[in-house]
Amino acid sequence: MLTETEARYLLFLYRRQEEEGREVGTVALAREMGVRPATAAQTLRKLAAKGLLRYRPYRGVEFTPRGRREGRELLRKHRILEFLLWGVLGCDPRTACREASSLLSASTSLVDSLCRALGHPSTCPCGKPIGRCGGR
């Protein structure tokens, strides 16, 4: 089980590395998360201990297959929640994105139910693709 902080880190890393193809250093990660580099490194070590990343100080991180799956699922959750907040509740896209990030602890079954209720949206408010229920 991931903490809210760990989920935010994993989601950020997944977006940057898997979607954008950009490496993320500890200093940039710390800046994004609003913490000191030592704190970011500590969280990376925790994610590595959970088998989600391979972390090598000063050399970056690499996703394990399990970490990649978890990151993909977190991104899907984020985008469905973002769609709900924007499309149903009327939040502006920026607010929807910020609030969706704070709801990542929602269960996969809840998010799958939301996805079905929303008619399986294909994109989030930013126009990025949303995966289907069950990873399809």
Q: Secondary-structure map with pairings?
A:
Elements: H1 4-19, H2 26-33, H3 37-49, E1 53-56, E2 60-63, H4 65-88, H5 93-101, H6 108-117
Antiparallel strand pairs: 1-2
Summarize the structure.
The chain has a two-stranded antiparallel ribbon with strand order 1-2. The longest helix has 24 residues, at 65-88. It contains six helices and two strands; from the N terminus they run αααββααα.
Describe the overall structure:
This protein is mainly alpha-helical and 136 residues long. The protein has two domains: 4-63, Arc Repressor Mutant, subunit A (Orthogonal Bundle); 71-135, Arc Repressor Mutant, subunit A. Helix content is 59%, strand content 6%. It has six helices and two strands, in the order H-H-H-E-E-H-H-H. It has helices at residues 4-19, 26-33, 37-49, 65-88, 93-101, 108-117; strands at 53-56, 60-63. It has a two-stranded antiparallel sheet. A hairpin with a 3-residue loop joins strand 1 (53-56) and strand 2 (60-63). Helix 1 packs across helix 3 (37-49) and helix 1 crosses helix 4.
